[in-house]
Design brief:
Blueprint lengths: L2 E7 L3 H12 L7 E7 L8 E2 L2 E2 L1 E5 L9 H14 L4 E5 L3 E3 L3 H11 L3 E4 L2 E3 L30 E3 L10 E5 H7 L12 H11 L3 E5 L4 E3 L12 H15 L5 H9 L3 E3 L4 E3 L1
Helix pairs in contact: 4-5
Keywords: Glycosyltransferase, Transferase
GO molecular function: glycosyltransferase activity
Organism: Nocardioides marmotae
Length: 270
Amino acid sequence: MRVGVVTVAHGRHDHLRHQHRGLARSDRLPEDYVVVAMGDPEISARTLDGLGSRVVPVAVPPDGRLPLAAARNLGARTVLESGADVVVFLDVDCLPGRELVAAYADAASREPEVLWSGPVTYLPPGRGGADLDRLDELDDPHPARPAPARGELVTGGDPDLFWSLSFAVSAEGWARVGGFCEDYTGYGGEDTDFGRSAVAAGLEMGWVGGARAYHQHHPVESPPVRHLDDILRNGALFCERWGEWPMRGWLTAFEEQGLVRRTAEGWERA
């Protein structure tokens, strides 16, 4: 059972270094660790405690919208072409718990027709890279997602709860889904689309209690006004593909601020 870990990154270099250190302390090291650098030539390959990383570049278009879906697909292709049986995706901000790689590998080998996710704890400011030996003490999974106990597997979840912060899929499962839809660019929508595509392809949703990850803090904007145009564009694409708009909480918040208005087709800038 060969495991490849994929992270897509643009900036967040300290977070990426902390992630590498965390993976190098894993109970089970991945056979491959690929970082897809989106328009960021400063990201370079490194080796740490027996765990090397490979860097694959992908260009960012002139409009500046990060090609998140295309970058994840490139990362998956890279590790699968090198023989990975399981692909683990970690957001650049996520630190892996010691059991994460092993737990995902075990779950995917037992049930390869499940799209597996793990609980994620959002760390407060000032916690992260220096706490790699104490992450268990900080464990407090996000309440909006399932959080089974370590050693437990739960299947049959809602595909709209899928998120790409931390998930794993077998090579067979990835082939059935066909990857992320690359029509999505910039921020928002591609995660939920992938979850629905997985279910449409016959995969179940599942949660792995042992695959715990810890999201390092960074400033956020809520609602994400700077991504408003991306959300409108990707939301319209999602509606075209699935018959309804995603991200409705954000859209309602934008509406309350007078930034968007409802139309017969959905939403538009006010």
